[in-house]
Amino acid sequence: MKVKAGLLSFLFLVTKCFAASVSPVLSPLPNEAVFWIDTDVGFDVDDLIAMVAVTKHAGSRIVGVSTTLYRPDRKAALTKLVLGELGFPNVPVFAGLGVYQDSESKFYSIYPTWPKQFGAPYSKQGLAFENVYGKSALSTSKDFVQGEAIDALISAVHQHSGKLVVMALGPLTNIAAALKRDPSIAKEICRLDVMGGWFLKDGKPDRLGYNTLLDIKASAEVFGNSKLQTVIINSQAIKDANMRIKRDQEYSQLTKSQEKSKLGSALFQDMGNWLDHSKNTMGDIVLADPITAMVAVFPNLVATARTINVTFLNASEGNQQNSVMNGGLQVKDEKKSPHLYLVETFRSPELVREDVIRSLQKLAKPKASVPNVDLGSL
């Protein structure tokens, strides 16, 4: 009887967040759903844009944020500042796993697959906020304990069992560590929404998206966990949706405003820093993290998805990109016991993009009436 009860409990948690296995499209979230954000905020500026956009719709339901990658302590301080400015100063923020030293060699030793064309470490991380808020703006980084995010995430999952949706907007380092420390949380997480995956060429995986690439071992462990219901907002799907803020259009209009809020001034300056840094690789600001966050809150935005099984061969052997992509990544359809969903297309991506831009317009002109797009009805 105990076995049957446990099985029924597990199935109940799964069906609350997922449609029946005959349909790969996500079902609505439970009314009591809450959110945890795991982020590498401070590199690509779209993490911050995602935070601005998602708090507009679900700020009161965010129960925690964790940071990762380079200087997670500074990222935590930046996150706390931004959430406070957005009206959510009481959201708990925790520093996760990553590189805590200002050392390029240390960074590359831990993240050998970091694309060198992006430059590392990103020297302007948080600089715009120090320029606007003062040099001491991120001094609270000393208050964040290295790796404290892991236990905090585990505690939140147990506290909100079956109701917690995790938005993973960076490498999966913290998520994998939490699952290793307490494997029971896999079946208690309502859903894990991951910005990552891969790009296609001739219909086959050609190269990994940067979040999945940076910590391949963690990606392999998370994607391979059959008890964890995971949605990959795939890099190729985001590319196909053309979710961008164009430098010479939307960004230019935002910066022209003479009524910018203090947060708007810092964020738009940060956007400019990133555009200058990535002009040879990206050109515009790709809204990968914002659409991932929006899918986490509004599952109806997914138009088509596949249930898959992913195998990373040699994932623990140096984490080198070539060892993974040259026949080292196997993606197969999975129908019998789906737990991994690969998003391929979105409903009305142009409206999602419009909603994100409106969030930024509100920072450009705080006194203006800027209505939200009704994403829940799409």
Notes on the protein architecture:
By secondary structure, the chain is of the alpha/beta class. It has a single domain (32-371), classed as Ribonucleoside hydrolase-like (Inosine-uridine Nucleoside N-ribohydrolase, Chain A, Alpha-Beta Complex), CATH 3.90.245. Helix content is 41%, strand content 20%. It contains 15 helices and 13 strands. The strands form three sheets. Strands 3-2-1-4-5-8-13-11-12 form a nine-stranded mixed beta sheet, sandwiched between helices. Helix 2 (46-58) packs across helix 15 (349-364), helix 6 crosses helix 7 and helix 7 crosses helix 9 (216-223). The protein starts with a helix and ends in a 14-residue tail after the last helix.
As a percent range, the share of helical residues equals 40-55%
User: In the CATH classification, which architecture applies?
Assistant: Alpha-Beta Complex
Q: Provide the CATH topology.
A: Inosine-uridine Nucleoside N-ribohydrolase, Chain A
**Unreliably modeled segments:** 1-16, 19-24, 317-324
In short:
By secondary structure, the protein is of the alpha/beta class.
Features:
single chain; alpha/beta; Inosine-uridine Nucleoside N-ribohydrolase, Chain A; nine-stranded mixed β-sheet; two-stranded antiparallel ribbon; 15 helices; 20% strand; disordered N terminus
Itemize the secondary structure elements and their pairings:
Blueprint: H1 2-17, E1 34-39, H2 46-58, E2 62-70, H3 72-85, E3 93-99, H4 104-110, H5 127-133, H6 149-159, E4 164-168, H7 173-181, E5 191-196, E6 198-201, E7 204-208, H8 210-214, H9 216-223, E8 230-234, H10 235-241, E9 244-245, H11 247-256, H12 262-277, E10 285-286, H13 288-297, E11 302-312, H14 321-325, E12 329-333, E13 340-346, H15 349-364
Parallel strand pairs: 1-2, 1-4, 2-3, 4-5, 5-8, 8-13
Antiparallel strand pairs: 6-7, 9-10, 11-12, 11-13
